[in-house]
Specification:
Layout: H1 3-6, E1 24-28, E2 31-35, H2 38-41, E3 50-53, H3 73-87, E4 93-96, E5 114-121, E6 134-140, H4 146-149, E7 154-158, H5 177-186, E8 191-194, H6 201-208, E9 212-217, H7 220-241
Parallel strand pairs: 2-9, 3-4, 3-8, 5-7, 8-9
Antiparallel strand pairs: 1-2, 4-6, 5-6
Helix pairs in contact: 5-6, 6-7
Bound molecules: S-adenosylmethionine (SAM).
Length: 242
C-alpha cells in the first residue's frame, strides 16, 4: 500500500491548500500519522488490513481535551463500528473496551464478535489496589477467525515492578506496550490502523513488528508525544535491521 492510496491529500503536509487545516499529516518511516478527528480521516482511508485500537470508553475518563461523558458512548460506537468494518473491508478489528459497557456490546459489534482477555499482573505493593486485572478486547472479522491472528484469546502482561508511568506520558491510560505488542506481532496484517492513537502505543508496537501503521489522534499534545515515540521506535527498528 502506498501513502497516496490511504489519503488523497498525500504530499499536502503544510501549506498545501488541498489539506484541510484541521488535519495535519506526518509520515515517519512506515507510519502515517494524522492530527485530526478520526471521523474526518477514516472516510479517506483504504488499504487497511487490521485495526488495533483503544477508543474512549464513555466512563468519564479525564483526558486533556476529549470529553469522555457516558452519554457520548452510544453515538461514538454507532458511528465507529461501521467505519472500521468499511476501512478494513470487513477484516480483523481489535477494540479495547470497558467491562462496564458489557451489557451494551451486542448493540454495536458485528455478529460473531469475541472477547480477548488482556490480563495484567500488578505488584502487591501498588499504592492503589487494582480492582480490574484484565481488560476486554473485542475482536470481529468477516473474513478470518480469531485463531488466524492470535495463538490464544488471552494474554498476561506482568507489570511488576510497578513504578508508575515513566517518561512523562501525557495520556492518563496508556496501554502497556508489551501487551499491545502481543497483538501487533501476531495478527495477520501488513498495515494496522489506530484511529484513537493517544500516546502512540499501537504505533510503536506496529513499527517494532515491522508493519505499516496509520494513526489518528485529535489532541495536539498527545499527538506530538505519539510522534516522538513512533520516531524513536522507527529509528530503533532501522538500527536492528542493519
Ligand atoms: C483510551 S485513549 C488511547 C490511549 C492509547 N491506547 C495509548 O496507549 O496511549 C483514547 C484517545 O482517543 C482520542 N480521541 C477521542 N476522540 C477522538 C476522535 N474523534 N478522533 C481522534 N482521536 C480521538 C483521545 O484524545 C484519546 O487520546
Amino acid at each position: 500500500m502506498t501513502v497516496a492510496a490511504i489519503n488523497p491529500f498525500y504530499g499536502a503536509r503544510r501549506g498545501n491548500p488541498a489539506l484541510p487545516t484541521q488535519i495535519r499529516k506526518i509520515v515517519i518511516g512506515n507510519a502515517t500519522l494524522y492530527r485530526a478527528d478520526c471521523f474526518d480521516v477514516l472516510p479517506m482511508l483504504s488499504g487497511i488490513d487490521a485495526v488495533v485500537t483503544d477508543p474512549p470508553y464513555g466512563i468519564g475518563f479525564r483526558y486533556r481535551s476529549y470529553d469522555d461523558a457516558p452519554g457520548k458512548y452510544d453515538s461514538l460506537m454507532k458511528r465507529l463500528v461501521p467505519e472500521l468494518v468499511r476501512v478494513t473491508a470487513d477484516g480483523p478489528c481489535f477494540v479495547w473496551q470497558s467491562p462496564l459497557k458489557a451489557p451494551l456490546w451486542h448493540r454495536y459489534f458485528p455478529a460473531g464478535w469475541r472477547i480477548i482477555a488482556a490480563c495484567k499482573i500488578y505488584p502487591a505493593d501498588r499504592s492503589r489496589a487494582p480492582c480490574l486485572s484484565w481488560d476486554p478486547v473485542i475482536f470481529w472479522s468477516g473474513n478470518s477467525l480469531l485463531r488466524d491472528h492470535l495463538p490464544r484469546d488471552w494474554n498476561v502482561d506482568d507489570l511488576r515492578p510497578w513504578d508508575g508511568y515513566r517518561g512523562g506520558n501525557p495520556v492518563p491510560c496508556p496501554r502497556p506496550l508489551s501487551q499491545v505488542r502481543y497483538f501487533c506481532d501476531s495478527i495477520q496484517a501488513d498495515t494496522i490502523l489506530d484511529p484513537f492513537m493517544g500516546s502512540g502505543t499501537t504505533g510503536v508496537a506496529a513499527v517494532m513488528a515491522g508493519k505499516r501503521f496509520v494513526g489518528i489522534e485529535r489532541d495536539p499534545v498527545y499527538f506530538e508525544y505519539a510522534c516522538e515515540r513512533i520516531e524513536a521506535a522507527s529509528r530503533e527498528r532501522a538500527h536492528a535491521d542493519v
